[in-house]
């Protein structure tokens, strides 16, 4: 009697099904979203049905007073302390071409105060409700846009990068941007294309090796072309996040967003928290040669409690 031995193989980027192909050699049509936007219900958290419906249709929600005034001076001091404590060549510190700090990653691991913000009743339950599960921090950072020198972020979908370069399989992540300073219409505040989260826009161009070394300063790969952006804006327009310090902008991982440079004397800074569902753990990158560092894409799925 003879036996046949079979070998099981793990799907590779070439063999596994990819519902959101991107970083392609040629343009293809936009892809309708296959995943829900809101995974929980009104009974699962603090957002009422009107809030959930707005988030589902528009892809974002503004929550004023997420962080109260008694927290804000301490958070701004923490921002300055973290920036001063880190070595100049620490890879978690991203600098503008002129040398000023643009972003600092993993602030929730560098500051007990920021870690407390993650767990606030105005923050964590919202993330759990929107994603319909326990959550963990996929990525966190402090964004700084100083007066006169702060440069913007070009139009992009975060999920496109997280899918292509980090292996996030489904659109089941949400970002919470908490303003540490007042956001005016003229100091580089975030702009969004409402409803654009319902469509995945595949991008053209292969991911370079260690793309994050440059993309975190100026993203040129993984961004929609101008014709695509024009059509999206013609269809839905542009909304802008403005408001007092302590306000939070929640937005879907696939929402197209960007910001202009800050040429005013008024600085803009925010704490940026990305929550991912524990049921949406990262796989291997779908369109990049290797994984990005842990401080950009956490692979240890530890539910925030």
Automatic annotation (TrEMBL):
Residues 1-12 have a biased composition (Low complexity). It catalyses: L-ectoine + 2-oxoglutarate + O2 = 5-hydroxyectoine + succinate + CO2. Its EC number is 1.14.11.55. It comes from the Bacteria. Its cofactor is Fe(2+). GO terms for molecular function: 2-oxoglutarate-dependent dioxygenase activity; iron ion binding. Involved in the biosynthesis of 5-hydroxyectoine, called compatible solute, which helps organisms to survive extreme osmotic stress by acting as a highly soluble organic osmolyte. Catalyzes the 2-oxoglutarate-dependent selective hydroxylation of L-ectoine to yield (4S,5S)-5-hydroxyectoine. This is Ectoine hydroxylase. The gene is thpD.
